[in-house]
């Protein structure tokens, strides 16, 4: 069992409250200091400034000379404000620029050389004209006749078409491949199923079909 507390113990005493100590602020001295600063009478002692004319030039001392480098000139030329690091950077930039210019010139000369090699030579006045043998062959075969041609071969075509009924009825045999003859050739190709030549062009396929139907003794 717990024993009751004895009379007069700490538990019967009232708790202590914190004590607040108030000190008056001495604002009079601070206000007086501000007042003196505003009036300019802050107790500053005057300092006498010596006359510049009374200065003794003998008290000045000359600076020692700057040490020279390998070339006899001071390192880091102060005339231009360049130090050793800046000079090395300038030399590096100059070398890189020269290398780029040389590389670009080499590429330009190489490109001009290749262009001159690829360019075909121009024909001179004494050069002979090119022959027609190098021209591309006619896709409809050799001896093909088309609109605008003329000659005995066209006349033979007109006479053969006149033998085919209703293909070139009343057509001319003057030897000129005109629009009327072209329409007759196209009509012959359509009626007889000839598809090897261009429409209205008298090529190898159309020639073989027409000559086989207009041979001697056929009508």
Automatic annotation (TrEMBL):
This protein's source sits in the domain of life called Bacteria
User: Which residues lie in Polar residues bias regions?
Assistant: 1-12
Give the stretches traversing the membrane.
89-109
Alphabetized UniProt keyword annotations = Membrane, Transmembrane, Transmembrane helix
Which portions of this protein are annotated as coiled-coil regions?
none
Q: Which region ranges are annotated with the description Disordered?
A: 1-23, 42-80, 118-154
Compositionally biased tracts (Low complexity): 119-144
Sequence ranges assigned to domain Peptidoglycan binding-like in this UniProt record: 150-210
Which InterPro entries would you find in this protein's record? Peptidoglycan-bd-like, PGBD-like_sf, PGBDSf
Q: Which Gene3D superfamilies match?
A: PGBD-like superfamily/PGBD
Which named protein is this?
Peptidoglycan-binding protein
Organism of derivation: Streptomyces guryensis
């Amino acid at each position: 069992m717990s024993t009751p507390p004895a009379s007069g113990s700490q538990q019967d005493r009232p708790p202590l409250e914190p004590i607040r100590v108030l000190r008056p602020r001495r604002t009079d001295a601070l206000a007086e200091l501000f007042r003196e600063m505003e009036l300019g009478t802050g107790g500053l002692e005057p300092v006498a400034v010596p006359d510049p004319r009374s200065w003794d030039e003998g008290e000045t001392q000359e600076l020692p000379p700057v040490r020279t480098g390998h070339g006899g000139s001071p390192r880091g030329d102060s005339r231009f404000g360049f130090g050793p690091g800046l000079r090395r950077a300038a030399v590096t930039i100059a070398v890189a620029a020269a290398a780029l210019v040389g590389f670009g010139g080499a590429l330009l000369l190489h490109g001009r050389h290749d262009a001159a090699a690829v360019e075909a030579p121009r024909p001179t006045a004494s050069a002979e004209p090119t022959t027609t043998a190098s021209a591309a062959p006619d896709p409809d075969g050799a001896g093909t006749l088309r609109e605008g041609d003329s000659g005995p071969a066209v006349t033979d075509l007109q006479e053969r078409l006149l033998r085919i009924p209703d293909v070139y009825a009343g057509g001319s045999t003057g030897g000129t491949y005109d629009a009327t003859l072209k329409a007759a050739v196209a009509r012959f190709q359509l009626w007889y199923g000839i598809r090897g030549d261009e429409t209205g062009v008298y090529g190898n396929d159309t020639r073989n079909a027409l000559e086989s139907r207009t041979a001697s003794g056929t009508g």
